[in-house]
Inverse folding.
């Protein structure tokens, strides 16, 4: 008998187990029988899983800079699952592989049975897993891969739609910016024409042009200040002609005066 007024010892615990050994034995036998029944009589289930990478980009060009409206992976999976895991798609997969024969060809029952065995779980910031449970491991792997491929195909279609919309938006933005740049370019051109030579980048060129013009001006001024040989000849020519005429007239006078002198001598 255990005295609770004192602290129980190991001997007291062993005595209590000895007195209730039949209860412990019954519990052990029941657990062993349940385990044997589960091992030998239950149907084994196999779970196959496939990993799918997710593209979270959208058509909004602001997302590439600010990353403001980029959806989470869970939202993307939910959006894709609305078509991939629809009742029609799941019933088609079940009929293709001959699953759940007890449901017959009823699309609703097949879809309900498929939903019990299909599951998705986000396992990373850009990936999720598709899981399928079945008694046949080969069938489980085949169905899991097929559903994963359906997710990939649907994601590709969505990306193509986003790509077309992104192209349209970016083309509109580029055309708008091209028009603005053309207007700005024309304004800059008019400003350069109006302020030719006074712009910061044109100071050195303007100084060189001024030096070149000053050199040309000095050369032209020197040429105009010195008289040429052709300009002197017309002024001297009349003087030479007058001197010749004077000598000719003096000779004529001397010839004319000689006969009179001879006559006087005679």
């Amino acid at each position: 008998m255990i005295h609770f007024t004192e602290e129980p010892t190991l001997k007291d615990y062993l005595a209590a187990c000895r007195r209730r050994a039949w209860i412990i034995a019954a519990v052990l036998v029941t657990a062993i029988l349940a385990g044997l029944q589960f091992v030998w009589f239950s149907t084994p289930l196999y779970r196959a899983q496939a990993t799918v990478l997710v593209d979270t980009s959208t058509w909004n060009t602001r997302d590439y800079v600010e990353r403001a409206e980029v959806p989470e992976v869970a939202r993307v999976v939910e959006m894709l699952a609305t078509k991939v895991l629809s009742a029609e798609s799941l019933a088609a997969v079940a009929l293709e592989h001959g699953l759940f024969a007890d449901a017959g060809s009823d699309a609703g029952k097949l879809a309900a049975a498929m939903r019990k065995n299909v599951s998705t779980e986000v396992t990373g910031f850009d990936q999720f897993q598709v899981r399928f449970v079945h008694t046949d491991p080969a069938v489980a792997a085949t169905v899991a891969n097929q559903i994963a491929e359906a997710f990939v195909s649907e994601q590709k279609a969505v990306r193509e739609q986003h790509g077309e919309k992104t192209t349209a938006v970016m083309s509109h933005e580029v055309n708008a910016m091209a028009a603005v740049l053309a207007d700005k370019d024309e304004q800059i051109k008019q400003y350069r024409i109006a302020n030719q030579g006074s712009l910061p980048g044109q100071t050195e060129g303007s100084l060189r042009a001024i030096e070149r013009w000053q050199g040309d001006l000095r050369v032209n001024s020197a040429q105009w200040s010195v008289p040429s040989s052709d300009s002197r000849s017309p002024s001297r020519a009349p003087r030479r002609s007058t001197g010749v005429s004077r000598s000719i007239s003096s000779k004529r006078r001397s010839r004319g005066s000689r006969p009179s002198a001879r006559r006087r001598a005679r």
Observations:
- The beta strands are 46-53, 118-124, 127-134.
